[in-house]
TrEMBL record:
Residues 392-403 have a biased composition (Basic and acidic residues). GO terms for cellular component: mitochondrion; nucleus. Residues 1-57, 388-422 are annotated as: Disordered. It comes from Sphagnurus paluster. Coiled coil: none annotated. PANTHER family: UV-DAMAGE ENDONUCLEASE. GO terms for biological process: mitochondrial DNA repair; nucleotide-excision repair; response to UV. Pfam families: UvdE (PF03851). Keywords: DNA damage, DNA excision, DNA repair, Endonuclease, Hydrolase, Nuclease. The lineage of its organism: Eukaryota, Fungi, Dikarya, Basidiomycota, Agaricomycotina. This is UV-endonuclease UvdE. GO terms for molecular function: endonuclease activity; hydrolase activity.
Amino acid sequence: MDAPRRSGRLTLKAPLTVSAAPVPGTATTNNRPDKRKRDKDDDISDSPESTTEDFKQNRDSLKVLQKKSKPVQYLIPDVEKKETTFRGRLGEYDVILSVAVHLQQVTLVLRLDSIKKNGIEWVKGLGKKNTEDLLVMIQWNEDNNIRFLRVSSEMFPFASHEIYGYSLEYCAQSLARVGSLANKYGHRLTVHPGQYTQLGSPKPEVVQSAVRELVYHCEMLDRMGVGVDGVMVVHGGGKYEDKSATLARIKKTINQILPLNVRNRLVLENDEMCYSAEDLLPLCEELDVPFIFDYHHHNLNPSSIPISAIIQRANAIFMRRGIKPKQHLSEPRPGAITLMERRAHANRCENLPPELPDDMDLMIEAKDKEQAVFHLYRMYNLHPVDYASLRPPEENETKETKGRKSNKRARTQAGKLSIEDE
Ligand SMILES: [Zn+2]
């Protein structure tokens, strides 16, 4: 059946049934893979046995699935209607690239062995494919009113590696095409290098590795021709038993080690364990490095100053730098009580924060990614949604997750320092 489309404000009396093919890479733009299927496949891909053979098999099975796929129907429940004056963009984070979903699983488990076995050119080929898939993703996002995207750090496997790292020049044309499509549509592209990007580590080799990681992300954004809004978000990192000494080292790294183009894209974000907003704001103000306020992290690791004051100070830095302000939103999973449980992100967000300024880019760091964005679109009537793109929420969302993906990856991916964090 044809999926109904919403125009203007439509109150739904009953759950909708949506038809869509559940397989990635099929011809129509709405056929983005089912999020839960992706998670399931991710688990499979974390098996250390994944090899080039798997890669080929995945590709073959993808072709078979494309031929055999039949539309399936999803029941889309209605959402609670809420009011807001917010008119900014909502962002989708760390998307596993749409048609690359099978390929990307392979990149997740790439280890140094696979470079030795298959050669660096094979690895670089994955990066090229990911870049081409990003074009498809941006078009899909445009068709679905999502104009703010965090590009995966896994685009170019091992690009920042101390020994095997490589320049992205071989992909210059594809990256430029991605950037010009994003610029044409006015999409914001940002990145969030992983938790091992420790600018304040007492160990010089750790700082060097963090700098390489930032240089790689910056090269990707620079080659895309992304403007100043293309920021690179990092956390304060570890405290190393002395927060103020670590903050001093972060300052030194930013001031003395980071190349200018890298520094210009750098922004710092409060985290839920070590550095609250009030820990980072003075440093950000002193260095004119923008500060990203994360509501979820703030709730777990609060500051003594009110949220409104934090946002005002953060926005002042963004304004001075001519960069569009940006924040992060996520919620704890239902029933979460302990700190560890509360750290895990819920599949979707149920509320926009009352303190949220009207004109702000808000990255939605929820497990359901684009579906979490659509959920807020529908609740707050922010944008029309194409019902063919919707997937139902998981029925029994628990307070536990199967563990942070970053930890799983850290275990299986010893050779790669780019581990995603939220
Ligand atoms: Zn965040």
